[in-house]
Structure prediction request, 411 residues.
Amino acid sequence: MLAVAVIRPRRVPDAAVAIFAAVVLIAARALSLASARAESIKLLPVLGFLAAVLVLGRLCQDEGLFRAVGARLARASRGRPVRLLAGVFGLSSLTTAVLSLDTTVVLLTPVVQETVRQQRMRPKPHLYACTHLANTASLLLPVSNLTNLLAFAAAWATEGSGGLVRFGELMAVPWAAAIAVEYLVFRRFFAADLAAPVTPEPDGLGKPGVPAVPLFALLTVAATLAGFVVTSFAGVNPAWAALGGACLLAGRRLAAGQLTPVQLVRSAAVPFLLFVLGLGIVVTAVVGHGLGGVIPRLLPGGTSLLALLAVAGIAAALANLVNNLPAVLVLLAAVAGGPPGRVLAVLIGVNLGPNLTYAGSLATLLWRRILSEHDHEPDLGEFTRLGLLTVPAGLCVATVALWAGLRVLGA
Prediction:
C-alpha cells in the first residue's frame, strides 16, 4: 500500500488502495473489527486537523494571500535564488519550530511556490526545502510536531514549564546542526538550479507586481496560528483552532457568494483523509502481528554515543516503514521511563528520517499532494537521492550534538 502511495499510479487512487487493504486485513481476521473501529476513533482528531488546515489553505489561496506574501518574499530575495533559499530556510525553520510542521507544509509551501513562479526561478530547491524543514526543523519544541508532544507527555509532562525548558535546551543544538546539514547539502545538490539565470515576471510597467495583502485572511491566519500554540500547551486538539479559522474564511466567502458548499467539501480532500485512515488501520495490524514486539528488542540500552546512534537509526528506518506517528508510539513504549536521551534520540530518528521517503510522515504526503494540486509533481528519484544525502548525515550530526549536550548539561 505504501508503495502505491509513493509511486501513485494515475488510475489507482490512494484512498481506494488504502481502504481495500484495510478491508482485506479485517476480512482475513488479521485485525478485528473492534480494533479497526478503535483505531479509526483514535485517528479522528488527526483527520479533523488535516481537513481543517487543508480547507484553510485553499481558502487563503482563494483570498490571494499566497500571491501577496510571495510577491514580498520575492522582493526581499532581490532576484537571487541563493538569497531566496536562505530566506526559505529561515522562515520554514522558525515556522515549523513555533507553529508546527503542518503550518509550514500547508501555508508556507504555496507561498514559496508563488514566489519562485513570479521570479521565474527553478522551483526545486525552494519547494524541497519546505518539506525537508517541516520534518527536520520540528525537533526544537514540543509544539513543533505531534511526535514531540507524544514524547513530552511520556517523559516530561509532570515537570511543567521546567520540562519545556529542559526539552528546548537539549534539542536546540541538534536542531541547529540538522538544519545546517540540510542547507549545506541543498547548496551542493541544487547548485545548477541556484546558479541558473533569473528573469522576473513583469507586469504592465515592466516591474514585478506587488498585490495588496488581504487583511481579513491575514488576521484569520494569525489568529489560527496563535490558536495552535495555545491549544497545544493547553492539551486541547489544535484541530479546533484550525476549524475556527476555516469557518471564519468559509463563512465570509459563502455569504459573499464566492464559494459553494460543494467547493468547500472538495477543499477538505476527503480521498486523502480516507488514505490516512486506511494507512492507520493497516499499520495497526502490522504492529499487532509481531512488529510491535520485535522493534523494542532491537534497541540498545544506555546513552552512549553508539547506543543513541542506533536508536535514532532504528527510529528513522521504522518511520519510513510504517510512518512516523505509529513508529514513535511503538518506540516510546520501549524507551519511556528511561534516560531522556533515549527518548530524544527516537525523536531525531522519527523527525529527520521521513525526509528519505514520501511515506515517512503525513506532512510529506500532504506536501506532495499540495504540489500536485498546483501542477508540480515531485520526482521520486530526485527526492530519494536528496534524502540519501541529508538523512544519514543529519541523523549522525544531530545525534552527536545530543550526546554532547547530555554530558554538558548533565542530563
